[in-house]
Design goal:
It is a single chain. The chain has 439 residues and is of the alpha/beta class. Helices cover 45% and strands 19% of the residues. It has a five-stranded parallel beta sheet. A five-stranded antiparallel beta sheet has the order 8-9-14-11-12. It has a four-stranded mixed beta sheet with strand order 7-6-10-13. The chain is globular. The two termini are 48 Å apart. The N terminus is likely disordered.
Length: 439
């Protein structure tokens, strides 16, 4: 009983420390960046990558940003699915021979799928398939470290900043996921990746430990608890939202969307960060004003909402705040442009109310950004995997067939460009009328 209590206390403290820790420095993604997500089937799911993209687009609506996902199911750091090296030879090779094999495999894979996109930023998330779902093996680990180093070397030589992302843990139904030999192996691979990042001057983001801390916390209360919502290897939206939270924090993403503070008794604006307030009126328990923000709150995928109870996602990444002091005691209802947006007490309003996920036109606009980003990413997957890389059988190859391929690629490119234009339009913040009325 005491042991279980100590374990629970440890995981609670670990989770609190992880949640409270702030990453110093600026956001890794900058204005004008061309971002490519490279990885395996977890990246190919187009979930954590879409959430990261939607965060960047809504938080910086004035920036010119461009994103592509080139995840491939079953892939590894030596780009197994793109270059198909002989892995038995790779693992058994001496250093010189292994280096040559890695250079060939990585070079061919990047040349086909990544370098033509001219990225300025590449996030790399491998490790799940690399460790082969087994106890740690030194021969595979050496190939992994060499391959990750080569990825960084080639990408940086071609003008891209690299961020290495560790895999998340495997989530089987067991009370002690940290004792799973596969997770212990993933932890060792992740530690090796940290050393690679330091040597290559790349950014390192550990999402393994934050994810594991949440798993242990939940398993202490319920040994059968599943936090990710998918299968053991491929989380659903909730798990991917936790992943995006850990990754964005590791990339220095700021928490504040905007903040407005009003003295309801005096009828004046006390503070405004990232927003402007106009036409303020306060009278007899009603406060009304117009608010123009510099950014939209980060959209949360509706199926991923359970993740908000597992990690401090809103506190760390999505603070769209309204603080009103000096109000008569009681309960208040907020409307935005005439639409109900929620209720709060005068005490809650005095402390500050995070409206990032509240109902109303602002959240609807952010959700539309997320919907359009999903649409664009699905279109690119169709273009890249099903048209660009489709191999016609020998008897079907002809100039006419290639002409049809070129026409279909052009059609999809136009559709992707149109969707990106829609995203750029819908992510621009608008002025809204807020009204707080005492119930």
């Amino acid at each position: 009983m005491k042991s279980a209590f100590r374990k629970l206390l440890f995981t609670l403290v670990a989770l609190e420390v992880l949640a409270a820790s702030a990453i110093a420095g600026e956001f890794f993604i900058k204005d004008g960046d061309r971002v490519v997500f490279l990885g395996d089937s977890i990246t190919e799911q187009r979930l954590y990558t879409t959430y990261i993209e939607a965060y960047a687009l809504t938080r910086h609506p004035e920036w010119k940003l461009w994103f592509r996902n080139v995840g491939w199911g079953g892939d590894t750091s030596w780009l197994r699915q793109r270059a198909h090296p002989d892995e038995r030879q790779l693992f058994a090779a001496d250093e010189a021979s292994q280096q040559k094999m890695v250079e060939d495999s990585v070079g061919r894979g990047l040349k086909r799928d990544v370098l033509p996109l001219k990225p300025t930023v590449v996030t790399i998330k491998f490790g799940m398939n690399d460790h082969s779902y087994q106890k740690f093996r030194e021969d595979i680990f050496k190939a992994y470290v060499r391959s990750q180093s080569e990825l960084a070397k080639v990408l940086e030589a071609n003008g891209a900043r690299v961020a290495f992302l560790t895999p998340q843990p495997i989530e089987d139904k067991r009370p002690d996921p940290d004792k799973d030999v596969r997770n212990q192996s993933l932890r060792q691979f992740s530690d090796g990746l940290k050393e690679v990042a330091a040597k290559q001057g790349a950014t390192f983001v550990d999402q393994f430990d934050p994810y594991m801390a949440i798993m242990l916390h939940e398993r202490a209360a319920d040994p059968a608890a599943i936090i990710g919502g998918g299968d053991a290897v491929h989380p659903g939206p909730a798990g991917h939202t936790i992943m995006a939270w850990a990754i964005l924090k590791g990339l220095g993403a700021p928490a504040l969307v905007s903040r407005a503070e009003i003295d309801g008794a005096a009828g004046k604006v006390v503070a405004a960060e990232g927003c402007r307030l106009n036409n303020l009126k306060a009278d007899q328990g009603t406060v009304a004003f117009d608010r123009s923000d510099d950014a939209l709150p980060m959209p949360v995928d509706p199926p991923a909402e359970p993740a908000l109870k597992l990690a401090p996602i809103l506190q760390d990444l999505d603070r769209y705040e309204l603080q009103v002091t000096g109000l008569p005691a009681g309960s208040y209802e907020l409307s935005i442009d005439g639409e109900p947006a929620g209720k709060a007490s005068s005490e809650e309003l005095a402390k500050g109310w995070n409206l990032a996920t509240s109902a109303g036109p602002i959240t609807k606009q952010a959700q539309e950004v997320l919907t359009q980003v999903f649409n664009k990413n699905n279109l690119y997957f169709q273009r890249w995997r099903n048209i660009q890389l489709y191999e016609f059988p020998g008897w079907a190859q002809s100039p006419e067939v290639e002409s049809k391929r070129a026409a279909e690629l052009a059609r999809l490119d136009a559709q992707i460009a149109q969707t990106e234009a829609q995203i750029d339009a819908v992510r621009q913040p608008k002025s809204h009328h807020f009204e707080l009325r005492k119930l």
